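Private note to self, pasted from the team thread so I don't lose it. Backbone tokens:
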């Protein structure tokens, strides 16, 4: 099979177990917490690899933050913010936000 490069997103889902769904506006105390990797790019990469593909996964914002010493949660937060900004813009290359744009976005949220 041909080599495959996936350029996409990776997210961290935080799943909390509870006895029932909370009602609208209700605060409900959860129990066990699980952290699960996901995201369209991550899921596509796993699927292609399971089908036998030689896959490379490019997650620039997450990898950049980890390489700068960020813990996985901070790196995921930064990468998710970069992805959120990119999703609001047209075009592949022009949609990529600069670091200062992501940091400003995070400060405003």
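Design output:
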């Amino acid at each position: 099979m041909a080599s495959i490069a996936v350029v996409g997103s990776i997210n961290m889902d935080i799943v909390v177990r509870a006895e029932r769904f909370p009602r609208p506006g209700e605060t409900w105390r959860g129990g066990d917490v699980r952290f699960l990797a996901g995201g369209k790019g991550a899921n596509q990469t796993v699927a292609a690899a399971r089908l036998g593909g030689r896959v490379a996964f490019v997650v620039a914002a997450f990898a950049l933050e980890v390489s700068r010493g960020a813990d996985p949660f901070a790196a995921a937060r930064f990468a998710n913010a970069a992805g959120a900004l990119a999703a609001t813009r047209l075009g592949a290359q022009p949609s990529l936000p600069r670091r200062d744009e992501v940091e400003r976005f995070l400060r405003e949220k």
